[in-house]
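Whiteboard transcription, Tuesday session. T.W. wrote the C-alpha cells on the left side:
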C-alpha cells in the first residue's frame, strides 16, 4: 500500500477541538480558559471547519452563550459534536489521519494518559467517536500483537516521509513508559507500517516543565518539507540550556528522507513562566498551523515579538496571530496540544 502521513501545514478539511471543562487541569485559573478557546475558534472558523466536542447539554448552553458574545453562534463552519471526554488535549487523543492509496483513513494509537494519569478511559475511546462523526475508516496500530502507545504531540512530520521525535518521550523505560522494551528499530517499523514513515530523526530531551516527559511539539516543528524550527535558550544558567544545545548539535547531523540536510531555524524561548512554584512548559514551538493562519502562544514576554516575526517569515502565505497563553499554559500545554487537524479529502 502507498501510505502517506500529510503534514499539518498542508490544507485542512477541519480542526478538532474539545471545549474545556476539566477545572482540575487549570486549578485557580479555569475561568479564563473557555474565553481563550473562544478566541481560538474565532480565528480558525474563518478558513476551515471546526468539530467542537462538548460533554453534555449544560456545557452546550455555556458554549452557545460564549459563541453568541463572540458573534459566532450558528456559524456555518462550527460543527458541535456531543461526546464526553476526560480532558481537552485532543492533539494526543485524536487518531492520526493518513492517506492510503489516496483514500483518507485514520490510525488509532493507544492512549494511556501519558503513562502518568489513570483517568483517561473516555479519552482512549475518542477516535471511534470522531471517525464515526466524519465518516472515516479507523484501524488500530499494533506491533507483535500488542497495541502501540503514542500521543500526537510526541511526533511531528513533514508530509514526505520524515518524522521527528525525542528519546526522552519514546525511549524512556523508567519514568513515563509508553511501550516497555521498545527499541528505535521497533519504532521505525511501526512508523513505516502504520504511517508510511521512511525516516526518523531522534532528538534528546524536551523542555523543562513538560508534563508529558519530552513531547517534540514544545521543542521542534516542521514548517515545510525541508525546514525545521527548533527552540534555543541563550541563558547558560537556565535549566533548558544544556538539553536544547544538545538538540542543536543533533540536528547538524540529521537527514531528511531524501538524504538532504534540513534547514534549521531557531526560535527563542520566553523567560521562565512560573506559577505556584512550578516551571511551566512555555514554548513558542507549540504553535498550530491552520488554513491561512498560524496561531502562536505568547507569554507577555520580550521574545513574543521576535518569535512572531520569525514565524511570519517562514509562513509568508499565512497570517501569524499571537494568542495569549499565560493562563493556558497552567494546564501544562498550549495551542498545538489542544487542536488536531483533519487533512483535506
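and on the right, the sequence the group agreed on:
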Amino acid at each position: 500500500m502507498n501510505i502517506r502521513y500529510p503534514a499539518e501545514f498542508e490544507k485542512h478539511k477541519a480542526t478538532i477541538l474539545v471545549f474545556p471543562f476539566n477545572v482540575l487541569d487549570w486549578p485557580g485559573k479555569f475561568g479564563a480558559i473557555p474565553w481563550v478557546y473562544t478566541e481560538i475558534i474565532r480565528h480558525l472558523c474563518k478558513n476551515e471547519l471546526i468539530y467542537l466536542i462538548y460533554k453534555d447539554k449544560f456545557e452546550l448552553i455555556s458554549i452557545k452563550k460564549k459563541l453568541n458574545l463572540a458573534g459566532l453562534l450558528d456559524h456555518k463552519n462550527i460543527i458541535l459534536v456531543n461526546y464526553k471526554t476526560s480532558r481537552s488535549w485532543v492533539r494526543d487523543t485524536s487518531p492520526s489521519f493518513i492517506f492510503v492509496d489516496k483514500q483518507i483513513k485514520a490510525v488509532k494509537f493507544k492512549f494511556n494518559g501519558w503513562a502518568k494519569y489513570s483517568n483517561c478511559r473516555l479519552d482512549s475511546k475518542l477516535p471511534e467517536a470522531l471517525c464515526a462523526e466524519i465518516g472515516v475508516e479507523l484501524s488500530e496500530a499494533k506491533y507483535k500483537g500488542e497495541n502501540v502507545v503514542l500521543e500526537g504531540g510526541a511526533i511531528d512530520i513533514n508530509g514526505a516521509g520524515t518524522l521527528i521525535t525525542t528519546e526522552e518521550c519514546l525511549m524512556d523505560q523508567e519514568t513515563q513508559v509508553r511501550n516497555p522494551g521498545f527499541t528505535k528499530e521497533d519504532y521505525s517499523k511501526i512508523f513505516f507500517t502504520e504511517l508510511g514513515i521512511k525516516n526518523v530523526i531522534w532528538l534528546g530531551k524536551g523542555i523543562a516543565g513538560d508534563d508529558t516527559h519530552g513531547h517534540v511539539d514544545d521543542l521542534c516543528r516542521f514548517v515545510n518539507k525541508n525546514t525545521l524550527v527548533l527552540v534555543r535558550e541563550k541563558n547558560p544558567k537556565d535549566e533548558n540550556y544544556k538539553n536544547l544545545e544538545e538538540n542543536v548539535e543533533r540536528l547538524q547531523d540529521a537527514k531528511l528522507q531524501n538524504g538532504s540536510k534540513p534547514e534549521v531555524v531557531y526560535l527563542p524561548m520566553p523567560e521562565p513562566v512560573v506559577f505556584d512554584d512550578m516551571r511551566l512548559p512555555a514554548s513558542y514551538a507549540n504553535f498550530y498551523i491552520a488554513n491561512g493562519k498560524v496561531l502562536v502562544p505568547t507569554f507577555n514576554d520580550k521574545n513574543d515579538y521576535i518569535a512572531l516575526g520569525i514565524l511570519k517569515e517562514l509562513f509568508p502565505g499565512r497570517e501569524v496571530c499571537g494568542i495569549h497563553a499565560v493562563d493556558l499554559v497552567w494546564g501544562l500545554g498550549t495551542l498545538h496540544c489542544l487542536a488536531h487537524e483533519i487533512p483535506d479529502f
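Someone added at the bottom: The first helix runs from residue 33 to 44.
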